[in-house]
């Protein structure tokens, strides 16, 4: 192995892996808690470690537009953002997906205003779940690094954009051990990007992308995007197992990861860094004889319905732990889980909301949820202390 | 698992101290997790950082509520920031102060070390940069990190940002504080 473990900040680890992934164009606008990622990339450009074009955009809308344009010329691109920045990008993100451009964005997940709050939850990325992007969620900084490699592989093989989500502060500002693969190893998994023939903007052979579609054509184009994103599940599983062969590690089957679910009578479902805390609590509760498991969602888009139903098929209680809500219904992941399981499970599925706006998610909150999930209240459980 | 909570003020380098402890412990073969709790960041406001040290990878992201060690970079925080919250009987408190423990935390029954790291830093570095000195005190008092590992952490982590002379002075301050604690 030509890599070694080191203690680095999550943001720095992402910047390092981005350097090794060699995008041609990076355009970004700084926003907490994404800032350290793009600051580090700007420094790498400045000191000659990296040779991408770095554009400090005047807004996130511009940054997203720039990577859209650059990607349309057939090169590898990157941007990162958080919270309001992601929302400001939204219009462009839908365009990027519709134009089938393999852009990768890091979302350092952060709460949404108002009230203004710079801390972590997942309301930002989950809110734009319908944009047509693949969405992957990291539990640790190692996973954040690895998901960026996987993201480019998926984006460029499927011609679909991929968003890598890592919890703001909780991961971006945390120092822990991470292994950052070198370029030579990455190249064994991810070759240089070659855009499909006759699909890019070229002054010698002019064409338009993302143009007008009338009612006669629009529906089929949207259906095609829908089907391709749904079909991406297969490619995620395949590339995840290829990833394991090259790098000697990988996350679950690429779509989900099961932790002690086999004999569980209650399973918590979650995504992102909270899964680490949940695993810790599961081990503690199991020493007391409580059969608890975790179903970690890695891929939120496409949503792995079949795999989820299979993982939850024998359990009595399911507690979905969300860091985002759909105001007026419930936790967003909870709705997704219920939809996937409709008519197929007998389990009682409850929705719990934790950690909004950076509220610390304690081990006690998780063990409380395990108890609360067995009580039928018909209400959403906001667990704040 | 060993849990450490660091209290300082914005600009005092307590996040850097958390990183240095984590790196040094990692060099000694441990798994670590270090993270700050950001308030609304500005120079002078109270800032807290955490370090967890364990034999296995640390999965839980919970903040530290019952620290084994409390490190206080600014003694004026004792009165205003509840720095002793969650202290257990076994908790060891390390404070930057040239006073006696009873003067800094009157009535507190637990174990406190007052180390004049500000004085040490001013003498050796010539600036009120105390995080490297208090790292030395922590290394000696806790026995959790070796002096060599602490030195390496300083060279490795600060080497990119500062020139050799500054690094050497910081290592000198580290050793001075290490030696100060008997």
Describe what you observe in this structure.
The complex is a heterodimer of chains A (385) and B (182). Chain A is α/β, with parallel strands linked by helices. Chain A folds into two domains: 5-247, Rossmann fold, CATH 3.40.50.970; 256-382, Rossmann fold, CATH 3.40.50.920. Chain A has twelve helices and 15 strands. Chain A has helices at residues 10-21, 35-46, 60-72, 83-98, 123-127, 141-158, 183-189, 215-247, 274-287, 305-312, 332-341, 363-372; strands at residues 5-9, 25-28, 53-56, 77-81, 104-109, 134-137, 162-167, 175-179, 256-259, 266-270, 292-297, 299-301, 317-322, 348-353, 381-382. Chain A has a seven-stranded mixed β-sheet, sandwiched between helices. Chain A has a six-stranded mixed β-sheet with strand order 9-11-10-13-14-15, sandwiched between helices. In chain A, strand 4 (77-81), helix 4 (83-98) and strand 5 form a beta-alpha-beta unit. In chain A, helix 1 (10-21) runs parallel beside helix 6. The longest helix of chain A is centred in the middle third of the chain and has 33 residues, at 215-247. Chain B is an alpha/beta fold. Chain B has one domain: Pyruvate-ferredoxin oxidoreductase, PFOR, domain III (Pyruvate-ferredoxin Oxidoreductase, domain 3, 3-Layer(aba) Sandwich), CATH 3.40.920. Chain B contains seven helices and six strands, in the order E-H-E-E-E-H-E-H-E-H-H-H-H. In chain B, helix 1 (14-27) packs across helix 6 (147-158). The mean pLDDT of chain B is 94. Chains A and B meet through strand 8 and helix 9 of A and helix 1 and strand 2 of B.
């Amino acid at each position: 192995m030509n890599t070694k473990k080191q203690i680095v900040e999550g943001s720095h680890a992402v910047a390092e892996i981005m350097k090794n992934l060699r995008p041609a164009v990076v355009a970004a606008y700084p926003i907490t808690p994404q800032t350290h990622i793009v600051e580090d990339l700007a420094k790498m450009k400045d000191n000659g470690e990296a040779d991408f074009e770095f554009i400090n955009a005047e807004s996130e809308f511009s940054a997203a537009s720039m990577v859209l344009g650059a990607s349309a010329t057939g090169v590898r691109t990157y941007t990162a953002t958080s919270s309001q920045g992601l929302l400001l990008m939204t219009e462009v993100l839908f365009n990027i997906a519709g134009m089938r451009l393999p852009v990768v964005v890091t979302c350092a997940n952060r709460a949404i205003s108002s009230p203004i709050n710079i801390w972590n939850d997942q309301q930002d990325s989950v809110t734009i779940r319908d944009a047509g992007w693949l969405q992957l969620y990291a539990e640790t900084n190692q996973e954040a690094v690895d998901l960026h490699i996987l993201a480019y592989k998926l984006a460029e093989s499927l011609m679909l954009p991929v968003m890598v989500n890592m919890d703001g502060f909780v991961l971006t500002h945390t120092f822990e051990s991470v292994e950052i693969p070198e370029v030579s190893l990455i190249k064994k998994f991810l070759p240089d990007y070659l855009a499909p023939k006759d699909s890019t903007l070229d002054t010698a052979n002019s064409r338009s992308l993302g143009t007008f579609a009338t009612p006669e054509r629009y529906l089929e184009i949207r259906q095609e995007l829908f089907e391709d994103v749904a079909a991406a599940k297969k490619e995620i599983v395949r590339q995840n197992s290829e990833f394991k062969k090259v790098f000697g590690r990988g996350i679950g089957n690429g779509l989900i990861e099961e932790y002690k679910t086999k004999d569980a009578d209650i399973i918590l479902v979650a995504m992102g860094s909270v899964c680490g805390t949940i695993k810790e609590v599961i081990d503690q509760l199991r020493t007391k004889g409580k059969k608890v498991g975790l179903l970690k969602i890695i891929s939120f888009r496409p949503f792995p319905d079949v795999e989820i139903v299979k993982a939850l098929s024998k359990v009595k209680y399911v507690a979905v732990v969300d860091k985002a809500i759909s105001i007026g219904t419930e936790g967003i992941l909870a709705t997704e889980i219920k939809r996937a399981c409709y008519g197929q499970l007998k389990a009682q599925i409850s929705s719990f909301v934790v950690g909004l706006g950076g509220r610390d998610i304690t081990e006690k909150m998780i063990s409380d949820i395990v108890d609360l999930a067995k009580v039928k209240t018909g209400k959403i459980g906001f667990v704040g202390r | 698992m060993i849990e450490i909570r660091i209290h300082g003020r914005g600009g005092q380098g307590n996040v850097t101290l958390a990183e240095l402890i984590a790196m040094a412990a990692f060099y000694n073969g441990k798994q670590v997790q270090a993270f700050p709790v950001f308030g609304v960041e500005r120079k002078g406001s109270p800032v807290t950082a955490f370090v967890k040290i364990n034999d296995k990878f640390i999965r839980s992201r919970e903040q530290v509520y019952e620290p084994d060690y409390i490190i206080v970079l600014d003694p004026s925080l004792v009165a205003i920031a509840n720095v002793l919250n969650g202290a257990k009987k076994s908790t060891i408190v390390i404070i930057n102060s040239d006073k006696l423990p009873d003067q800094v935390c009157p009535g507190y029954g637990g174990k406190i070390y007052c180390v004049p790291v500000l004085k040490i830093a001013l003498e050796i570095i010539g600036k009120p940069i105390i995080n490297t000195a208090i790292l030395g005190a922590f290394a000696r008092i806790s026995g959790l990190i070796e002096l060599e590992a602490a030195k390496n952490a300083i060279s490795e982590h600060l080497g990119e940002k500062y020139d050799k002379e500054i690094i050497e002075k910081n290592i000198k301050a580290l050793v001075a504080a290490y030696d100060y604690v008997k």
